[in-house]
Amino acid sequence: MIRVLFVCLGNICRSPMAEAVFQHKVNQAGLGRHFEIDSAGTGGWHVGERAHHGTRAALRENNVAYDGRARQFTRQDLTEYDYILAMDKSNLSTILRSGYPEDAEVELFLSFAAQRGLVDGDEVPDPWYTDRFDLTFDLVSKGCDALLAYIREQHNL
Ligand code: 4NP
User: Fold this and answer.
1) Which pLDDT value is given to residue 70?
2) d(C-alpha 57, C-alpha 134), whole Å
3) CA within 20 to 30 Å of 113's CA: 73, 89, 119, 144, which one?
4) Ligand 1 pocket member 54 (CB < 6 A)
5) How many CA atoms lie within 13 A of 54 on its CB side?
6) Which residues are annotated as catalytic?
């Protein structure tokens, strides 16, 4: 089982979108049985809440299902996931300050898409502030394509 965790600040905008889109792409590729996919926020303000209405609207418009609730990232996640993907550099440094990732690969989510020339930057701007959920979806979708390609290479899937 390949365990993948997406992490942002609130776990209501970016990381639940990435979780939903990545699960969708994994399912479409017929690889669902190989993956366990979740998301979390470094902050705890929205624990238990549904995703932001902007995230839910963007997912709905693109026919991607999502029914998750926000939870907070814990240091235990460092030992339970194989790939931990941070939406921005601030999230990444919070994750790395929480403990030592023994076996997990901890990366900026967009680094794989940036390496493949699909996107310019390596951070997903926060739509909580920008309100650009359409742009977020576009970046998340490209990021998930590149991440899935990378993981498939790593695991010969
Ligand atoms: P997210 O966006 O990290 O993409 O879920 C945010 C959601 C909530 C807050 C900040 C960012 N907040 O400050 O409550």
Assistant:
1) 98
2) 9
3) 73
4) no
5) 17
6) 8, 14, 126
pLDDT at 40 over 90: yes
Q: 31 C-alpha to center of ligand 1: Å?
A: 30
Split into its structural domains, the chain has a count of 1
Q: Which of 17, 95, 128 to mutate to test the pocket of ligand 1 (most atoms within 8 A of CB)?
A: 128
Q: How confident is residue 102, by pLDDT bands cut at 50, 70 and 90?
A: confident
**d(Cα 129, Cα 35) in Å, to the nearest integer?**
31
Q: Which residue range is the domain that position 52 belongs to? A: 2-155
Which ligand 1 atom sits closest to the C-alpha of 136?
A: 4
For the segment 52-71, the average pLDDT, to the nearest whole number, is 98
46, 11 contact by CB (below 8 A): yes
At which residue do the structure tokens 């600040």 appear?
A: 9
pLDDT at residue 100, rounded to an integer:
85
Ligand 1 centroid to Cα of residue 8, in Å, is 7
Dist. CA 156 → ligand 1 center (Å): 35
CATH code where residue 9 lies: 3.40.50.2300
Supply the residue whose CA is at minimum distance from atom 9 of ligand 1: 10
Residue 101 clears pLDDT 90, i.e. is over it:
no
Whole-number mean pLDDT of the chain?
A: 97
**Are 13 and 52 spatial neighbours (Cβ–Cβ below 8 Å)?**
yes
12 lines ligand 1 (CB under 6 A): yes
